[in-house]
Amino acid sequence: MLVSNHARPTLEDVAARAGVSRATASRVLNASPRVSPEALEAVNAAVTALGYQPNRAARALVTRRTGAVAVLFSEPEPKIFDDPHFARLIRAGARALADVDVQMVLMLVHSLDDQARAHRFLAGGHVDGALVFAPHRNDELVSIVKKLPLPVVYAGKPWGSLRGMHLVDNDNEGGAVLATEHLKSLGRKKIVHVSGPLDELSAIDRLNGFKSAMSLDDKGVARLTEDGGFTREGGRKAMSALLARVPSLDAVFVASDLMAAGALETLNEAGRRVPEDVAVVGFDDHVAIAEHTSPPLTSVRQDSDEQVKVMVEHLVKLLRDETVKKKQQMLPTVLVRRESA
Amino acid sequence: MLVSNHARPTLEDVAARAGVSRATASRVLNASPRVSPEALEAVNAAVTALGYQPNRAARALVTRRTGAVAVLFSEPEPKIFDDPHFARLIRAGARALADVDVQMVLMLVHSLDDQARAHRFLAGGHVDGALVFAPHRNDELVSIVKKLPLPVVYAGKPWGSLRGMHLVDNDNEGGAVLATEHLKSLGRKKIVHVSGPLDELSAIDRLNGFKSAMSLDDKGVARLTEDGGFTREGGRKAMSALLARVPSLDAVFVASDLMAAGALETLNEAGRRVPEDVAVVGFDDHVAIAEHTSPPLTSVRQDSDEQVKVMVEHLVKLLRDETVKKKQQMLPTVLVRRESA
DNA sequence: CTTAGCGGATCAAAGGTTTTCATCGAGGAG
DNA sequence: CTCCTCGATGAAAACCTTTGATCCGCTAAG
């Protein structure tokens, strides 16, 4: 029967009820081997009887670990968070961390103030580790975090030296090759590319994939690609520019689904039929977008849920001081065929 | 100069350096009035010199407060989190909580397991309070949370009795009236409504607003409204059903922008021009949607950022044991005109 | 001159857990 | 029968902060 006494039971209470000392009770809770079966059972019984919950603060005080990790999103433009990709990452993080019973402390970092706050927070020892999403070039946050004596796992490659950093990346380059090869296999001859902003490494990797699959030199790249800034509107504009520059184009690989949606609008307005006149492949395979364009969008899938899951597993290992075989992991991408190519 | 000693400085160190006792140093940090100006200055100097950061665990242990609040999203269907609305709420929450220096612990609650985990967590005293987003009918999570001796502020009206509950709601009913009156003022005679799922109170409130603005009885409601389930696809289907049932309709008030996007597609396919033949008003004013439909969507704006901000302010007051004048607050909605009506 | 009052500082306890070290008892070896 | 070993347990220290009780040195009132 649950005691409805207002004060929460303490380990002392549990020990008393089980007829053992506080030390033994603690050992049971922490699954120490040096405890007799009888004691173990008695303590467990007392725990459930009293509805005992360890006091996190007290535990943290002595163990010097908090049982929480920070999840940092660095993004200078707040509106980018309307991107469904962001929601997906958060959801995946929440789930994966909950599964291992770790608190998720979410921090969104936009301004310099936010950076300072994040720094204080991380340096203050309020978390045991961090997951960092910082895709942009020369992000100050990365430099800050790097200096801290704190286990960190990055999503994708942060800008700068990767030495000793733990990260989980999607195979952006491989995905881009996949997409481009697919277009080539359809017999397309004039393939162009709408890239993401080149201050993000994922965009660069995708561009590089396109470049190598097409065997392009820098001049070719300059002619056949256009930056769409990872926005829908940017996708529209980039597509217009490419149509003007390469009127005979018959296929386009677009570095994100959102931009691809914009590009499709432009192609429609220009009277080009998809996929008859122009084949289109996107990237992200975000179903909420890809399934609702007309026609539905063929796209490269990167499994964000998996990425975050692997990041969490990786971080947990670091927290447990286990050795990790590979500091930097690469996740495969696959092509999902719909009607646009 | 920062001491690069690996161990973090403690209050004891600060006190020693300032030439006062630990107690005095503590009072300075907590802005107690009973401290001399000299002591205050000496302590502050020591704090900055050492880069001292209070140990959260130790503080939590003695004060019995954690400096963290939980943010709970209860949603049986995980995919709903792809809804941009969700990202917006999270972003607003992160910002508002960071501004008052409170940790945000995010929990997504889908399954019964998740509920149990949330219960353990909240009952375990790991947070000082909670923000709860649980729009659905008879959500078990609400009953669970209600029983806990924990300050909680709800987003919108949770199902069931509202006695003594703290909540911040948008004026859904008022917004629906606004939308409907606007359509009437345009001279429209046959106005119909695509509602949200009627197991969400926000959907019911919007339906009620429509009902009262149109002076409908239940029979009228049954004929002129259709449930679109707050999804794009649902919006399409509901619109089809309404077109079949009321072929002469000349306006529609749709209870969410996402559904409105679907409804617009259906109207296009049916050859009805918007707004000439059918005027359309949405709800949410989610720019990423409303500005990209064709034509751009007139919509009722509910300011989610503001809602969350007010929720946080409200919760903070509860945490400080301040009295709150109004337990239940209602935020106004406004009509944003674009081209669809 | 004594004493009450007061501002300001210190002392010490409390808060709940983990963990080291010592103790205790039983069982095996000599 | 005694000595050792070893496994299980308990006592107590340590983690760092807040806070009520206490104390000290002065001034103002009686």
Automatic annotation (TrEMBL), chains A, B:
Keyword field: DNA-binding, Transcription, Transcription regulation
Domain of life where this protein originates: Bacteria
Domain HTH lacI-type: 9-63
UniProt key word Endoplasmic reticulum: no
InterPro entries: HTH_LacI, LacI/GalR-like_sensor, Lambda_DNA-bd_dom_sf, Peripla_BP_I
Pfam families, sorted: LacI (PF00356), Peripla_BP_3 (PF13377)
Record bears the keyword Ligase: no
Any one Gene Ontology molecular-function term assigned to this protein's record: DNA binding
Official protein name in the record: LacI family DNA-binding transcriptional regulator
Organism expressing this protein natively: Lentzea kristufekii
